[in-house]
Amino acid sequence: MRVDVLLPNDIDDPAAPSGGNVYDRRVLTGLSRLGWTVREHAVAGDWPAGDPGAVAAVVDTLPDGALVLVDGLIGSAVPDVLVPAAARLRLVVLVHMPLETDAERAVLAAARAVITTSAWTRSRLAGPDRVRVARPGVDPAPLAAPSPAGDRLLCVGAVSRHKGHDLLLAAVDGLPVRLVCVGSLTRDPDFVAGLPRTARFTGPLTGADLDAAYAAADLLVLPSRAETYGMVVTEALARGVPVLAAEVGGVPEALGDGPTPGLLVPPEDAAALRAALRRWLDDAGLRERLRAAALRRRATLTGWDGTAAIVSEVLAA
User: Fold this and answer.
1) Given CB 3.0 to 4.6 Å as the disulfide criterion, which of 26, 56, 106, 217 pairs with 79?
2) What is the Cα–Cα distance from 82 to 232, expressed in whole angstroms?
3) Among 63, 77, 136, 134, which Cα is nearest to 108's?
4) Are 45 and 54 in contact (CB under 8 A)?
5) Which of 217, 266, 268 is nearest to 238 (CA)?
6) What is the CA radius of gyration of the chain?
7) Cα separation of 311 and 113, whole Å?
């Protein structure tokens, strides 16, 4: 079994880690373990504003009947290339973040199948009966040891308006907390330049350094303005770390059913975020209840092998 995969060219760039890149890499590794021959085609461009010619140069080399998995960042940008190609290729599109544009709709309509990373994303797309959900997996991790005060806050994500760091920094101003922000500082430099330095900004971290950041956290804070799932949510829960997040997109899905292992606040609301942080800091009983719920959710999390198996089923079909 062989699949050709069209990917953004920064998939393995340690300076620009993203949930989409991690997802793609882990799924492709899993497909190889399942016996697939995976041929990667990294396409240059600042996707989704990339170069259609670069995609066409790859597509033109593929034989008729080839099975092609396309990252949605690329697929949504080049309908003039992929829609005609779908007549001779078996096209599957993996949608991380739905753009809900005419270009995206045209490509998804031409595809044999569509994969999304959350049920929330699936609900946003036309023709959901053609869409299969393959949620991100998470690696097992040791439990983080909570501090008595619960004042160690962690935010993981590229420092950008999309991730809501401005809201978070406004919310923590004057509170007795130690905030660490992990993520790229180059995605939105003008936004970064305007932020107060009331937190420690580490830049992007991976591997053992990222593990250490989670291990030293009492609470993950995710004030995003939009999230399709929120892989950092399950990464925190895998360590028994509760979550305070804006109630957007697939975040409630990542938190799971049953007792919620965290607090949800309205998006774009720094005051609500601050009030939730005060509750967390002032109520030791609340912190214990949320940690207990995080441990219950931890026991239900699934690994990347399961994600790859779902993608494999879609491709095989």
Assistant:
1) 106
2) 32
3) 77
4) yes
5) 217
6) 20
7) 11
- The dihedral sign for the CA sequence 200, 212, 214, 147: negative
DSSP class per residue in 170-201: HHHTTSS-EEEEES-SSSSHHHHHTS---SEE
List alpha helices for the chain, DSSP H: 19-33, 52-59, 72-75, 79-85, 102-110, 119-124, 165-172, 189-193, 207-215, 231-237, 251-255, 270-282, 284-298, 304-316
Question: pLDDT tens digits, residue range 58-102?
Answer: 999 999 999 999 999 999 889 999 999 999 999 999 999 999 899
Q: Is 257 exposed, middle or buried (0-12, 13-18, 19+ CB in 10 A)?
A: exposed
- Report d(CA 239, CA 211) in Å as an integer: 9
Is residue 280 within 8 Å of residue 263, measured between CB atoms?
yes
| Per-residue pLDDT reduced to its tens digit, 181-231 | 999 999 899 999 999 988 999 999 999 999 999 999 999 999 999 999 999
The answer to whether residues 251 and 233 touch, using CB atoms and an 8 Å cutoff, is yes
Say what the pTM is: 0.93
Supply angle C-alpha 13, 14, 19, rounded to 5.
80
Give the pLDDT confidence of 250-303 residue by residue, as tens digits: 999 999 988 899 999 999 999 999 999 999 999 999 999 999 999 999 999 999
Q: Where does residue 130 rank: exposed (0-12), middle (13-18), buried (19+ CB within 10 A)?
A: middle
At residue 202, what is the residue type? T
What pLDDT was estimated at residue 18?
A: 79
Is residue 126's pLDDT more than 90? no
